[in-house]
Design a protein that fits this description.
single chain; alpha+beta; 3-stranded mixed beta sheet; DNA-binding transcription factor activity, RNA polymerase II-specific; repeat
């Protein structure tokens, strides 16, 4: 045989394959599909060589049932039906088709009614030919396995083999027989059992049933279970094992919240224990994983520390166990600065109340409230005390009214204390001036100061330019001098102008002439004469008494009608007076209420101007 390979075509020439030379002639699986000689139909044969032949539909043809023959019909003309009964044998093999000549296959179900028996022969019945008759009786014979009954309905006696699984426990006591149900002993267990270390790296296999005599292999690998305590990075590693890992031998060294560290042996959480080695495999895997062993909390801190009292007073510390939350109070005063910012709490040492929920003390209480009056000095200084109780910060501005007379004393100014005291000395002098003439008497003369209201002594009292009438001693001669010349004349005469009475200012500065002297003598003599006439010697003047006028009372007769009318007038007068008093009291009360409301509103407006809202 030639084994040389080459590419060859099939017999119809449609498919090319690489084949050996000895198998170069082959047929493909496709139909021929070449056009026949009629030119209308294709070849429906499989792959073949040579000519396809004539069209099978040409020449002698029969009707579908084959009873009538037609000759010389074209291949593309359908054969007519003969109209006779088909009479072809049906699929049942006993009856024929009762229909007329037809194209296509005959009916598949034979509906001829026949008498049939069931397979077990216990029942007979007339049914259509295409149906099978089966009764409801179950076969009670035992199958070949000798364990199970047939239980097939309408069994003909030839029971099928048992289809159930044997499912008897094998001698290994671990598995059941998977073979179909059979007679006799089951075969040995064909499975192998793997015995391994805990991590599975070291293992070996033994026949199932012999693992009870084996021990787990010793594995040199490290245990893969990571410690859960805080020493996982420094803990000494150990080898692969079954069961729980050994406990950590290091010191706990966990830091308390106070800053100290636990000095006990490690008591943190331990990883979940690995399953113990068992020779008998588990039937079912555990549905839940092993839980880790929780660690215990560190005991309270046993260190001794110095602890302050609740008031944090220096020198009142005590030695106490760090974890002991007990609080104590010393006998010192609290000394906390009060809310006023000026005084200190005088209560016995106590803890301060805090709004924080994280801190609460049994000894916590609020400091006392300062109810003392304000003792601060106001700025700028003023004589009025602060109306508030002791408070932090600066005192409010003083709005009390103070009275200050002007420099000349002509009027009194009512000023706010804060306004007046915040001015400097020059501004205060300007504010107190009334703006009018001074009107104070000059010290050296009888005239008033012509300057605008000013502080201190009047300026240049020796330069008064007012006109003064100067007379001689007998007041006969008179002239007009300036006031400053009059003062100069008094000084030249050796007298002080201040000591001269107002009525005699300028009198006697002019010298008298001869006429003045003669007139003075005549006048003096006349005066002496008048005195002598009015007051004779030895008699004293007696004061005259006024006569009292005698009042004459006349008795008048009063009628009864006049008495009644007089009494009525008195009653009406009393009623009118009472009504007037009640009306005045009512109006006065309402007026006081209105005045109180007005003053309260004014006070609120004043407070808003002083302390505006931000």
């Amino acid at each position: 045989m030639c084994r040389k390979k080459g590419v060859y075509k099939c017999q119809c020439g449609k498919v090319e394959l690489e084949r050996e030379c000895c198998e170069r002639i082959f047929r493909c699986e496709n139909p021929c599909q070449k056009l026949l000689g009629c030119g209308r139909h294709v070849c429906e044969r499989g792959c073949h060589k040579g000519n396809c032949g004539e069209c099978p539909l040409q020449g002698k043809r029969t009707c579908p049932c084959g009873k009538r023959v037609y000759e010389g019909m074209a291949c593309d003309v359908a054969v007519p039906l003969c109209g006779a009964t088909c009479d072809k044998l049906l699929s049942c093999g006993f009856h024929r088709c009762p229909e007329r000549c037809h194209r296509g296959p005959c009916i598949e179900t034979c509906r001829t009614v026949v008498t049939k028996s069931c397979r077990c022969g216990s029942a007979r019945k007339q049914i259509p030919c295409y149906q099978d008759l089966t009764c409801e009786r179950k076969c009670q014979k035992v199958r070949d396995c000798g364990r199970h009954a047939c239980k097939r309905r309408c069994c003909d006696g030839d029971c099928p083999p048992c289809s159930e699984i044997c499912d008897r426990r094998l001698r290994c006591r671990n598995h059941k027989c998977p073979a179909p149900c059979h007679r006799g002993a089951c075969s040995p267990c064909p499975l192998m059992v793997m015995i391994s270390c805990s991590c599975g790296e070291t293992h070996f296999e033994v026949p199932c049933g012999t693992e009870t005599e084996q021990k787990p292999p010793k594995c040199p690998k490290r245990c893969r279970v990571a410690p859960l305590c805080t020493h996982r990075l420094i803990c000494k590693p150990h080898k692969c094992h079954y069961g729980a890992c050994p406990p950590c031998r290091l010191i706990c060294d966990e830091e308390y919240s106070c800053g100290h560290k636990c000095k006990l042996r490690c008591h943190g959480p331990r990883p979940p224990a690995l399953p113990e080695f068992t020779l008998k495999p588990k039937k079912k895997k555990s549905s839940h994983e092993a839980e880790h062993i929780p660690g215990t909390l560190c005991p309270p801190c046993p260190e001794l520390v110095w602890r302050s009292c609740v008031g944090n007073h220096i020198g009142a510390e005590r030695m106490m166990i760090c974890s002991n939350p007990a609080e104590f109070s010393c006998d010192n005063l609290c000394g906390t600065l009060l809310s006023c910012g000026n005084h200190y709490c005088t209560k016995i040492c106590h803890a301060l109340k805090s709004d924080s929920k994280s801190y609460s003390s049994v000894l916590a209480e609020s400091c006392e409230e300062c109810n003392l009056p304000c003792q601060k000095e106001r700025s700028p200084p003023c004589p009025h005390p602060c109306p508030l109780v002791c408070h932090p910060g600066e005192c409010p501005p003083c709005h009390s009214l103070i009275k200050r007379a002007c420099h000349c004393g002509a009027m009194v100014h009512a000023l706010k204390c804060i306004y007046y005291n915040s001015l400097d000395e020059r501004e205060q002098v300007a504010v107190r001036s009334c703006g009018g003439p001074c009107h104070r008497k000059l010290p050296n003369c009888t005239h008033l100061c012509p300057e605008i209201c000013h502080r201190g002594q009047c300026p240049s009292p020796d330069k008064c330019s007012k006109k003064v009438i100067v007379r001689c001693g007998c007041q006969t001669l008179k002239k007009e001098w300036s006031c400053k010349d009059v003062q100069e004349a008094y000084r030249n005469a050796g007298s002080d102008p201040k000591d001269v009475p107002k009525t005699q200012f300028g009198l006697g500065l002019l010298p008298c002439d001869p006429d003045c002297r003669s007139k003075m003598k005549i006048t003096d003599s006349e005066l002496q004469l008048r005195k002598s006439k009015k007051e004779p010697d030895g008699e004293k003047p007696v004061a005259k008494r006024r006569r009292r006028r005698e009042r004459v009372q006349e008795d008048k007769k009063v009628s009864r009608l006049q008495v009644i009318s007089g009494a009525t007038r008195k009653v009406l007068l009393i009623v009118i007076i009472l009504v007037t008093l009640i009306a005045v009291a009512y109006c006065g009360y309402n007026g006081l209420l209105w005045l109180s409301d007005w003053m309260n509103e004014a006070e609120l407006q004043r407070q808003r101007r002083i302390y505006p809202r931000i």
